[in-house]
Amino acid sequence: MTDSSELPGLVVTGVSGRMGQTLVRAIAGSDKMRLVGAIERKGHDWIGADLGQAMGGAATGLKVADDPLEAFARAQAVIDFTSPAATVEFAALAAQARAVHVIGTTGLEEVHLAKIRAAARHAVIVRAGNMSLGVNLMVRLAEKVAAALDDDWDIEVVETHHRMKVDAPSGTALMLGEAAAKGRGITLEGHRDSGRDGITGARRKGDIGFAAIRGGDIVGEHDVIFAGNGERIVLRHIATDRALYARGALRAALWGQNQKPGEYDMFDVLGI
């Protein structure tokens, strides 16, 4: 039997959030890793509390902390589904600790990505807008379908999430749009249409459109619609349990233990 102290130690940032708590439960149910740190922002109500009790369960002996560097120094991996500004800070600290940094944060802009790339020169970073196997297969399919069709086929990406999601389009929607653009041999930046309102005029040929729906507690639904004259092709992924993202993140954290410093994605992790 493996001594639990020999298992890779993981830190979860933003531990009070939906994904943070889902990750904690996933790690607790795993025999391949252990939780060694739980991080929240300074001033949060959970700071100093026992993690298990803060989550409404039994005490675990692990206190929620606001010092990421101290926690990262004891870990082999950090799993991070927080905010762009926080993720950039965590990337630098994880690189300093030489810990694998798994990033599921969305809404990252070029200024954030440049700093993440700099951190990846010193440590392994696995970054993806979505950690699920199904979504990543769908991304590959979107690229292939777009490559097979000409621009007489309009491409629309529709995403649906819970009412608390703060960014739009979702990171997954942008992944799908980027894949479709790549398949078509264009850049998404020059062909993205996500601001329709009022009298917009006819749809511009070759654009990739985005629509975002928010409501209830929907985990995540994504459609890529290829609309031609007289026919449509629709790729769809429906997530019903946030745990699937946690499982993908844990898989990435383990995979990253044997890699050289650099920036990777879930295609690398899954080998697709």
Write up this protein.
With 272 residues, this protein is α/β, with parallel strands linked by helices. The chain has 2 domains: 153 residues, NAD(P)-binding Rossmann-like Domain (Rossmann fold), CATH 3.40.50.720; 107 residues, Dihydrodipicolinate Reductase, domain 2 (2-Layer Sandwich). The chain has 9 helices and 12 strands. The strands form 2 sheets. Strands 3-2-1-4-5-6-12 form a 7-stranded parallel β-sheet, with helices on both faces. Strands 8-9-7-10-11 form a 5-stranded mixed β-sheet, with helices on one face. Helix 4 runs parallel beside helix 5. The chain is elongated and about 60 Å long. The model has no long low-confidence stretch (mean pLDDT 95).
Distance between the termini: 33 Å
CATH topology of the largest domain: Rossmann fold
The largest β sheet comes out as: 7 strands, parallel
- Specify the helix fraction band: 25-40%
> Which secondary-structure class do the elements indicate?
alpha/beta
What CATH architecture of the largest domain do you see?
Answer: 3-Layer(aba) Sandwich
The total tally of domains equals 2
Keywords:
single chain; 272 residues; alpha/beta; Rossmann fold; Dihydrodipicolinate Reductase, domain 2; 2 domains; five-stranded mixed beta sheet; 12 strands; 34% helix; elongated
